[in-house]
Specification:
heterodimer; A: about 90 residues; mainly alpha; 2 domains; about 65% helix; B: about 180 residues; AhpD-like; about 0% strand
């Protein structure tokens, strides 16, 4: 999760120490798998965000319009909104 | 250049399909041999990513030279030394010069090297990760004046995948390397 957050917000902070820490828990293959996954999501979520489409289901399972979905889920990802509020 | 995860030597890769993709990545110039041999450490992920990167860069309806300029603009913005120094062999053979690359990755708005459509595509890449709020409904309306919806999706998906892998590679580059 630290690798994920830093790749997006402060890539210079992804240093030798962080990789040393990663290697305690993950194989080189798993680190590559993680890094590709994180990069892919970093690139695509921003692109998808510009397209302004939202989940078609509400949290309670109802099929909702794009307008209602935007109101439910908001224009900003909840994780980043919460991060700013800390 | 050295990396936090070093590229595998080609001799260590037995899978003929993966070896073929790595050889193609090197022959095209982008995404290059080192990236391909790093991601080869996770073969099940390396194969679809390498295919998608090479297909989205060299195929489709948007001009390859324009996509190559966009790719380098993004790599310089991502401050990724690996992808910044790579060059597409296909684009070079088609006449893309370093001067045009520098113009595209720099002050392209005032450059005579690009059409209005090309400037709009460069702006799409430029703003996507600089200030995505500017890539709004008005911006997409402007894009649609120059490109079909299929071409816009081709561009957007290309930009997203390239930038994502550039940021990944940036984290792998060792500071001393």
């Amino acid at each position: 999760m630290r690798y994920s957050e830093l790749m997006a917000t402060d890539p210079d902070a992804v240093d030798d120490a962080l990789f040393e820490e990663l290697r305690k828990y993950y194989s080189e293959s798993e680190i590559v798998e993680l890094g590709m996954f994180l990069g892919f999501n970093l690139g695509y979520h921003t692109f998808f965000g510009t397209l302004k489409f939202y989940p078609i289901f509400a949290p309670d399972g109802r099929l909702v319009s794009q307008e209602e979905s935007e109101q439910i889920y908001g224009a900003e990802p909840a994780s980043l909104t919460e991060k700013e509020a800390v | 250049m050295t990396y936090q995860v070093e590229p595998l030597p080609l001799s260590a890769i037995d899978d003929p399909e993966l070896r073929g993709l790595i050889e193609k990545a090197e022959a095209l110039g982008v995404p290059g041999s080192e990236f391909a041999r790093i991601v080869a450490r996770s073969p099940v992920h390396a194969k679809p990513f390498l295919r998608a990167m090479m297909m989205s860069h060299t195929e489709g309806n948007v001009d390859h030279k324009l996509k190559e300029v966009i790719r380098i603009l993004l790599a310089r913005f991502a401050e990724d030394p690996y992808f910044s120094r790579l060059r597409s062999v296909k684009a070079r053979n088609a006449g893309l010069s370093e001067a045009v690359i520098d113009a595209g990755a720099g002050d392209y708005e005032d450059s005579a090297d690009f059409s209005e459509a090309e400037k709009c595509a460069l702006r799409y890449a430029d703003q996507m990760y600089l200030d995505a709020s500017k890539v709004d409904a008005d911006f997409y309306a402007e894009l649609k004046r120059h490109f079909s919806e299929a071409e816009i999706m081709e561009l957007g998906a290309f930009i997203a995948l390239q930038f994502g892998m550039q940021m990944f590679m940036r984290t792998l580059a060792r500071a001393s390397g």
